[in-house]
Amino acid sequence: MQSKKYLEKHEILVLPITQLISLRNDLNHAGWRGNPAKPESFRTKLEHLIDTIEPIVT
Prior knowledge:
Layout: H1 2-9, H2 14-28, H3 39-57
Helix pairs in contact: 2-3
């Protein structure tokens, strides 16, 4: 519930967090999902999301 309140105040994080959840699911399900990220794009996407999210939350 606290995370929902935080995201309501920081809507800029909703899209990056949603994308991060998708990457997390690819990792946890070891690629056994429809259209999983390839290793090269996984790393690139993760680095981009970190660069996007980190300045907002710190």
